[in-house]
């Protein structure tokens, strides 16, 4: 099948969509929607992503005219898949239209999945952490409402991660601690507690409130009796001591020692650097 055939199908669909129904007979919107869908698929095979997305959106409009809202949601989702190849913002717009329909229908699990897709586009394509964070938070709420706890936690951890990167440490602490609390009695999740507590503790330190940081570490040890013996807890206590005494050398030594056995990722390194800069003028961790 050729692009030319797809263009001819679109022209035919356009004509049907704007015609007087008595002239053509039958349901003009249904016939136009089918033609647009066929054209959209042909454009997709030809990798004409923009044309494909636009045509699927036209199909959705026809389906909405017939009040076939489930079909329209599917068409918008198809449009988003094509748009994602060429225009992330158009992909988001199409997904948002699908989500409106899905939430109206009470299909929050499906809506959450596509809301997560929007968040991922903001995160990886548009590099807009603020919008990604907000989208992941909405997805988490919808997953929670559907009792999809693991998926909700996955989104909340994204929220926490981006909040910290945006300097919103209180929000990051809240989300890390929320996931940690919910994971205490979950054997599959419990192994991750030390990581959540470490990240939340670093965020406490980044706020500059060492009293709150000390209290938080004590609370984490009470929440999980095994945490106190972990390298993560000992690391937090060591750098807390360095901050309390304004000892930049001690702080750096603690970071280097921890990094040798447990490689620090970019997220932790950035926050540790901010903490270090708050107690001294040096600009590197090592």
Could you walk me through the main structural features you see in this protein, from its secondary elements to its overall organization?
The chain is mainly alpha-helical and 286 residues long. It has a domain of 118 residues: Tetratricopeptide repeat domain (Serine Threonine Protein Phosphatase 5, Tetratricopeptide repeat, Alpha Horseshoe), CATH 1.25.40.10. The protein has 15 helices and no strands. Helix 1 runs antiparallel to helix 3 and helix 11 runs parallel beside helix 15. It starts with a helix and ends in a 7-residue tail after the last helix. It is a peripheral membrane protein. InterPro entries: NSF_attach, TPR-like_helical_dom_sf. It comes from Podila verticillata NRRL 6337. Required for vesicular transport between the endoplasmic reticulum and the Golgi apparatus. This is Alpha-soluble NSF attachment protein.
Q: Let me know the number of strands.
A: 0
**Helix-strand topology string:** HHHHHHHHHHHHHHH
The number of helical elements comes to 15
Radius of gyration: 26 Å
Largest sheet: none
Percent helix range: over 70%
Strand content: under 5%
CATH names the topology of the domain at 169-286 as Serine Threonine Protein Phosphatase 5, Tetratricopeptide repeat
* Class from helix and strand fractions: mainly alpha
Q: Briefly, what CATH class of the domain at 169-286? A: Mainly Alpha
Organism: Podila verticillata NRRL 6337
Function: Required for vesicular transport between the endoplasmic reticulum and the Golgi apparatus.
Subcellular location: Membrane
InterPro entries: NSF_attach, TPR-like_helical_dom_sf
